[in-house]
Amino acid sequence: MVNIHQKYMSRAIQIGRSGLGPTAPNPMVGAVIVHDGQLIGEGYTSAFGGPHAEVNAIDSVADKTLLKRSTLYVTLEPCSHFGKTPPCADLIIEHRIPTVVVGLKDPHKKVAGQGIEKLRRAGVQVITGILEPECREHHKRFLTYHEKKRPYILLKWAETEDGFIAPDPIERHENPEPFWISTPYSRQLVHRWRSEEQAILVGTTTVWDDNPKLDVRLWTGESPLRVILDRNLKIQGDYHVLDGSHPTLILTEVEETSRYLDHLEYRILDFSKEVTPQICSILYEYGILSVLVEGGAQTLQSFGNAGLWDEIRLFTGTSSFKKGLKAPTIPGKSVVSKKNIGSDVLRMYKNDRFG
């Protein structure tokens, strides 16, 4: 049976999802305020640099005098430090909100329990751990970044009914246009996913074969940072990823800066060693909470083999290639959900084996 705290924390999680994408690298916190069993205010974290969820929830309350007899529910511990905005704990204390219910303690080194401690020292009753597993799932990108020191990694691809990710090279050479395995509905969904993550990563072969834009033109929102694996800087010419239309990071072993394009960023990888941990370290340095890895097969497989992934989003289309490039085989996955997107089947997996 759901108790009253769980009911309102569930609502806080629900509205917090509205911040997915623009809030990063801040967490997408949700907050609700309840007075005498009535919800009188709610809010979620604004786009990065804007007000936090607690501020927006308090601002939404029409009669501020009710706050001193109300309960604030928040999915993540209120901050206690000055960043781009003042501490939320101070605002709660200022408005004399007597009870704060927290879903999850903040692992960020600048918070890490200090927000809760500050509230309690001011006489606020703080209740913790309400729907904690659900709050952890909600804040999985933020938690992975701060606890594991790497981005949350999503692997995405589409494969045919017979298990191929791309057609035979000879057929592709004869017909250089992209071979769409998934439907337009699935492709639009992928563009929505891109708007929700901070970075998107592909390898050289994917750029050569498909010349992708890696943007969100079929959806709304900001396009993610484009991250391109190009060991020898073989991508040259009129490829979209070189056009400077969106921030782009090239990962290469070429140190000759005269070969770099001025409008792109470059970082060096040691390709004689396993590259996936190096990629994670670089993206962590860039403050990237999440990355969507879209291909190709070798790149996806390298993350799978290293166990450096958190989710797989796999579309299976209705076509068959009979021969071509086999789809990745990723160990340690279990199905979270399965649904139809038009004629496609979308399976979502989680990583059961690695962290």
Automatic annotation (TrEMBL):
InterPro entries in alphabetical order: APOBEC/CMP_deaminase_Zn-bd (IPR016192), CMP_dCMP_dom (IPR002125), Cytidine_deaminase-like (IPR016193), DHFR-like_dom_sf (IPR024072), Eubact_RibD (IPR004794), RibDG_C (IPR002734), Riboflavin_Biosynth_HTPR (IPR050765)
A GO molecular-function descriptor: 5-amino-6-(5-phosphoribosylamino)uracil reductase activity
Stretches assigned to the CMP/dCMP-type deaminase domain: 3-127
Cofactor details (free text): Binds 1 zinc ion.
Pathway(s) served: Cofactor biosynthesis; riboflavin biosynthesis; 5-amino-6-(D-ribitylamino)uracil from GTP: step 3/4; Cofactor biosynthesis; riboflavin biosynthesis; 5-amino-6-(D-ribitylamino)uracil from GTP: step 2/4
EC number: 3.5.4.26, 1.1.1.193
Catalytic reactions of this protein: 5-amino-6-(5-phospho-D-ribitylamino)uracil + NADP(+) = 5-amino-6-(5-phospho-D-ribosylamino)uracil + NADPH + H(+); 2,5-diamino-6-hydroxy-4-(5-phosphoribosylamino)-pyrimidine + H2O + H(+) = 5-amino-6-(5-phospho-D-ribosylamino)uracil + NH4(+)
CDD domains membership: Riboflavin_deaminase-reductase
One Pfam family hit: dCMP_cyt_deam_1
Alphabetical keyword list: Hydrolase, Metal-binding, Multifunctional enzyme, NADP, Oxidoreductase, Riboflavin biosynthesis, Zinc
Cofactor(s) the protein needs: Zn(2+)
Coiled-coil regions listed: none
Annotated function: Converts 2,5-diamino-6-(ribosylamino)-4(3h)-pyrimidinone 5'-phosphate into 5-amino-6-(ribosylamino)-2,4(1h,3h)-pyrimidinedione 5'-phosphate.
PANTHER family, sorted: 2,5-DIAMINO-6-RIBOSYLAMINO-4(3H)-PYRIMIDINONE 5'-PHOSPHATE REDUCTASE, DIHYDROFOLATE REDUCTASE FAMILY PROTEIN (AFU_ORTHOLOGUE AFUA_8G06820)
Family the UniProt entry places it in: In the N-terminal section; belongs to the cytidine and deoxycytidylate deaminase family. In the C-terminal section; belongs to the HTP reductase family.
Protein name: Riboflavin biosynthesis protein RibD
